[in-house]
Amino acid sequence: MEGVVIGVVVALAVICGLIWSNKGGNFLVGFVLGLLLGLIGLILVLVLKPSAARQQAGGAALTRQCPHCSRAMPRDAAICPNCQQQSAPWLYHEGRWWSKNDAGADYWLDERSGQWIQYGSETRPAEGSSNQPGFSS
User: Fold this and answer.
1) 3-class secondary structure, 114
2) pLDDT tens for residues 60-95?
3) For position 127, what pLDDT does the model report?
4) In whole angstroms, what is the distance from residue 7 CA to residue 75 CA?
5) Residue 123 has what pLDDT?
6) pLDDT for 58
7) Whole-angstrom Cα distance, residue 30 to residue 42?
8) Which of the residues in the chain have pLDDT under 70?
9) Which of 83, 90, 85 is nearest to 132 (CA)?
10) 23, 51, 58, 59, 95 from 55: Cα distances, Å
11) pTM for the full model?
12) Which of 61, 86, 82 has its CA nearest to residue 71?
């Protein structure tokens, strides 16, 4: 009988982990919620939304200004949903947003200051850096 109870608890934890993972969260977090809280953990993973690394600063932080129409567009989009113009998408890699300028140099966005930092010169902001400096569009 104890083996059945343990099996049900572990199965519930795995289900919670899979649901949480499908919502963009970490499988282990959902697993632990299901393991420790049981049915309450299942309800939590069904109702709550995970805060993924790319969503930590909130939805507004996941947008950038389109270089053509100046309206908000997703940072990783190659085509603006508003004006349908193409621009170089930003790449999210190792916890940072990356882009290239017109000369092909790599820059990463310092989220705290809003400044673009050239790769390899971690203390020097990009010239004219702002929310979206003169990177290729």
Assistant:
1) coil
2) 467 888 989 999 888 888 898 889 999 888 888 878
3) 52
4) 43
5) 52
6) 43
7) 8
8) 51-61, 122-137
9) 90
10) 12, 6, 5, 6, 11
11) 0.46
12) 82
Q: Tell me if 114 sits within 8 A of 131, measured CB to CB.
A: yes
Residues 116, 125 contacting (CB under 8 angstroms)? yes
Task: Identify the pLDDT of residue 74.
Answer: 87
What is d(CA 19, CA 4) in angstroms, rounded to the nearest whole number?
A: 22
* 3-state helix/strand/coil string of 42-91: HHHHHHCCCCCHHHCCCHHHHEEECCCCCCEEECCCCECCCCCCECCCCE
For every residue of 4-25, DSSP letters joined together read HHHHHHHHHHHHHHHHHHHTTS
Q: How far is CA 106 from CA 53, 74, 98, in A?
A: 22, 20, 7
Distance, CA of 86 to CA of 112 (rounded, Å): 27
Instruction: Write down the pLDDT at residue 83.
Output: 92
Both tokens of 33, joined, read 């919620």
- Residue 36 corresponds to which tokens in the numbers above? 């420790």
